[in-house]
Structures are given as structure tokens and as C-alpha cells.
Amino acid sequence: MEIKVTKSTNPQRERPKDSELGFGKYTTDHMFLMDYALGKGWHDARIVPYQHLRLDPAAMVLHYNQEVFEGLKAYALANGGIGLFRPEKNIQRMNASAQRLVMPEVDSQLFLQAMKQLVMIDREWLPKSEGTSLYIRPTMIATEPMIGIRASERYLFYIILSPVGAYYPEGFNPTRIYVSDTHSRAAKHGVGHVKTSGNYGSTLFVFQEAAVKGYTQVLWLDANELKYIEEVGTSNAFFLIDDELITPPLEGTILPGITRDSAIQLATSWQLRVSERLISIDEVIDACRSGALKEMFATGTAAVISPVGEISYKGEQFRIADGKTGKLAQRLYDELTGIQYGRRDDPFGWRIRVD
Ligand SMILES: *Cc1c(COP(=O)(O)O)cnc(C)c1O
After folding, report:
1. 334 CB neighbour count, 10 Å cutoff
2. Phi, psi at residue 27, to the nearest 5°?
3. Per-residue pLDDT reduced to its tens digit, 55-73
4. pLDDT given for residue 172 in this prediction
5. 173 pLDDT band (50/70/90 cuts)?
6. Which terminus of the chain has fewer Cβ atoms in its 10 Å neighbourhood, N or C?
7. Which 3 state secondary structure label does DSSP give 150?
């Protein structure tokens, strides 16, 4: 399918400075759109000036949460080009998410082409300074106006871009994390593994509680017993206990993070013992008390690797690794960002060129 391009005649003149970017505050001059109708399939793939959507107030996404999204980044490469990191994984995951919500899949080649072409058109928005990137947000929504509940027969797939700075306000410094012992994020047999908007709106309450108490992120425990570690905010959790690197298994309640998968592959290639297994908050705290807990960190596209320096659980505070960034977190961060920004070799073939 050909992508029809209509360039903006009125691009934004004032660009934010790299130091003011933050995360997700700004969008660029263009967007990609494509429509779906039952019986007709996907049609009208187009790149147009960034603009509001027109939606019927009865559009099904607004009532029943038929929505899926993705998040990945374009990077200014050391040699001057533009790169993406494992985009085929995001495409696969978005199609898997869509399937779970009875939404149509998008052809993976067209999906990749749409992202590349949009990034190229808005390439002047790609920030160049250390740690910055152009965040890509593919989204699919149910657009059919229908108040009765069933799967929509019409959808809109769109992609927007946002120039971003470093994700965490503290930068690559250990964060303080609040363990919720009252709320959970996702239940077994549900949609915790799906990137769908409902999984996020429902967590804001706890984020706010953590923020009021002075914490940057929330550590989620399992919905059954509030006992086993699940995720950290919107990133995956890792613990280095003695010489074992532990991360919770993919059993349907956590997001199968691409950064998680990359960290597992890297750590394994470095001969580390990596376990995808259940780990309880009690095991973490015991290991913290005994000194066996060497490091804790979180992984995700937005923050890459985010070391954790302190956790708060049931009113008690626990310092991890003296509140400092651990060696493994640092090594993973350096290697992953090295590959993403084209400063290092790419032995796994994770980096692809946009231009
Ligand atoms: C997106 C996301 C992650 C991280 O996935 P990446 O592919 O590494 O960016 C982890 N947890 C949740 C809840 C997420 O939404």
C-alpha cells in the first residue's frame, strides 16, 4: 500500500531546547493515519500535518477501551544516521495486543515503513544531545459510533512522534520506589500483558499516592496475594541477588518488555545466571537485610535501565546498594544505549537504519 504524503504548510517554528524536552510534552509537525472498515480492510494510509482527530462521541474507544498502543524510539546515530531498536518486536507486540482486544492486525512491513517515513519527514525534530531521542507512539482505536457493546467494525491506526529528553527527572541516578501493599495492576488470566490504555488509567491512583509520599515509581505486587513482584511502574523489574539475576516470569500479568528481553540476552551472553522466576517482596527484603541483594533496577524503552536505590514497603524504608548505581545496571545501560545510538557493535542485529 502506498502512503500518501501531505506536507504541513505551517510547521512549528519554535522548537523546544533539548534540555527542556522532558517526556512526551511535545509532538512534531506530522502524523501517520490509516483507516479500517470491516469488509474493506485497512485503507487510506497517509501522512498529514499533525491535527486533531474527529471522533463521534459514541466512538467505541471512548466507552469500552478498545485501544492498543506501542512505544519505541528513533535515535540519532553516532555516524549521523537515524536508527530504530528492534522495531519488529514492537510491531509483533502491538499485533498481539490487537488480537487480544479483537482488533485487526496491521501488516508488519507497512507498519515499519510508516514509522520510517514519518520519522524521515520529521527528522529535524530528532534531538541530538546525549540521552535524547524521538519517541514513536503507534496507537489503534475503535472509531465506530455504537453504544451497544461488541467489537467495533471500524478502526483508526495512527502514529505520532514526540522528542524526548531523559525519562526520569533524576537522570541515570537511583530512584526511590513505593511498593503498593493495597493495590495491584493486573490479575492472572486478564490483560496485564497487553499494552492497552485501561491498564494505565487504573494505576494513576497509586502513582499519585506514591508521588505524595515522595516516590518516583510504584512497585506492583501480584493481584492474588500482594506477595510476588510484578513490575515497576511501566517497566520490568530485575534483582541481582548474590550472582543470580532474577526477573519475574511472563505469565500474563506483566508486559513482555523488549528492553527486558534485551537485558536478559545481554546478561546471558556475559555468562550471568539469569532466572525468570517468581520472586516475593519478602525474598527481596530478606536479601536486602542480609546484604545478598546487590542491585535492583527496572527496564523499559523510556528509561532504558533505571537503578533503584530505595524501596518503601509497609512504612519501612530499605536502602539498596547504598543508594548507588550498581555495576550491572551501569554495564547494561552503557551497552544498550551504545547499541541504540550506534556507538557500539550490534552483535544481535538489533539496530536498524531509518535513512
Ligand atoms: C511498555 C511497558 C514496559 C516496557 O516494555 P519495553 O518494550 O521494554 O519498553 C513494561 N511494563 C509496562 C506496564 C509497559 O507498559
Report:
1. 15
2. -125, 165
3. 999 999 999 999 999 999 9
4. 73
5. confident
6. C
7. coil
Which residue, chain included where needed, has cell 544531545? 129
pLDDT at res. 14: 84
Name the one residue in this structure whose C-alpha cell is 483507516: 35
The burial class, CB within 10 Å (0-12 / 13-18 / 19+), for 312 is middle
Provide the percentage of residues in the chain whose pLDDT is more than 70: 98
Label residue 329 left, alpha or beta by phi (over 0 means left) and psi (-120 to 50 means alpha).
Answer: alpha
DSSP label of 280: B
Q: Please provide residue 19's backbone torsions phi and psi, each rounded to the nearest 5 degrees.
A: -75, -15
What atom of ligand 1 comes closest to residue 256's alpha carbon?
5
Q: How confident is the model at residue 171 (pLDDT cuts 50, 70, 90)?
A: low
Q: Is the beta carbon of 301 within 6 A of some atom in ligand 1?
A: yes
- Is 328 in contact with 267 (CB distance < 8 Å)? yes
CA distance 244 to 275: 7
Q: What is the pTM of this model?
A: 0.96
The answer to whether 317 touches 330, Cβ cutoff 8 Å, is no
Q: In angstroms, rounded to a whole number, what is the distance separating the alpha carbons of residues 118 and 49?
A: 11
List the one residue out of 305, 247, 306 whose CA is nearest residue 273.
247
What's the CA gap between 11 and 230, in Å, rounded? 43
Cα(60) to ligand 1 centroid in Å equals 25
Q: Tell me the three cell numbers of residue 41.
A: 480492510
Nearest CA residue ID for atom 6, ligand 1: 257
Q: Which residues of 55-74 are buried (b: 16+ CB within 10 A; e: fewer)?
A: eeeebbbbebbbbbbbbbbb
Count CB atoms within 10 A of the CB of residue 38.
Answer: 12
Q: Which of 234, 241, 331 is closest to 285 using CA atoms?
A: 241
Coil, strand or helix: which one is 204? helix
Q: Which of 234, 254, 350 for a ligand 1 pocket mutation test, highest count of atoms within 8 Å of Cβ?
A: 234
The CA angle 290-179-22, to the nearest 5 degrees, is 115
Q: Which three cell numbers stand for residue 252?
A: 500474563
Coil/strand/helix, residue 23 = coil
The residue to which cell 469500552 is assigned: 64
Q: Evaluate: CB of 222 within 6 angstroms of ligand 1.
A: no
CA distance 134 to 119: 8
